[in-house]
Description:
Layout: E1 8-12, H1 18-26, E2 31-37, H2 42-58, E3 63-65, H3 69-78, E4 81-87, H4 98-105, E5 108-112, H5 135-147, E6 150-152, H6 158-167, E7 173-177, H7 191-199, E8 203-206, H8 221-235, E9 240-242, H9 252-260, H10 292-301, H11 306-322
Parallel strand pairs: 1-2, 2-4, 3-4, 4-5, 5-6, 7-8, 8-9
Amino acid sequence: MNSINYRIDNLQYCNWSEKIFKINRKAKLDAIHVTIAYHEDFDEVLKNIETWNKYFNDFRDLIFPGKNFKDIEKAHRENKTAVFFGLQNCSPIGDNINLVEEIHELGILFMQLTYNNQSLLATGCYEHTDSGVTRMGKEVIKEMNRLGIVIDMSHSAEKSTIDAINLSTKPIAITHANPSFWFETKRNKSNVVLKALAESGGMIGHSLYPHHLKDKSNCTLKSFCEMIARTADLIGVKHIGIGSDLCTGHPDTVVEWMRNGKWTKTKDYGEGSKENSSFPKQPDWFLDASGFANLEKGLKNIGFNEKETNDILGNNWYNFYKGIKN
């Protein structure tokens, strides 16, 4: 039995600074999975990695690049945060499957097959027709499995997600989403998806991004923790973690980039709501990573024991990372 209790937030996209890294460290986060691409091509990802290398140099007392589960252990021992790279889109590989190996060599551990829209690999959750994983998608999944890159279906449509679960020989992840039984939105996941995910050994990271929350910015800690309890009843505690989707400190031009990228000349509002054109206010109990302390209290108050609480707040993700062979 693992006697160390890890704290892991498996999705953040903040306006990175020493202040944010200190908040994460004060929250005792041993690891974070960070987004380094939404719509960028391969060369732009290289530039983003250069920026991160500067962070690693300037703030070496707080963060370092994570490659595998051993770096989570190291971070815990050294009171630092291991940073794992992920892509929220397959745009960096374009139509070149050989680039999958190149992004792996750059330290990319997670890649979504699509970000909201239809891609060359799969269908995004905002499309009207979900044709599932494509011919190229099937080949890329094989390559990701071979290399040890985790398939992330957070922004994917239903059939595509089920296809990915069935096609992958390794467990996949939904790093940042919530169940649709709690709050119906195109980004949240059905019971069918959640059950298939758990049966295949996968993980879901529950999101704190207000557009994914019941009552959005006014979502209560109790409601969120009740949702986690219902999810645990449905798929088991071992498949549940946190992927907060924190985007703290960014100007609204960044959410415009996330929504619109390079694919449209008009403003896209996701599901049609103009309130999506700006970053929503975080719930007051999770303004930043310091909210992990509130989550710990809330989960215990709702009936989770000490071990279950620690599993949800990090140990489950640690075990998932431990299973990644790269």
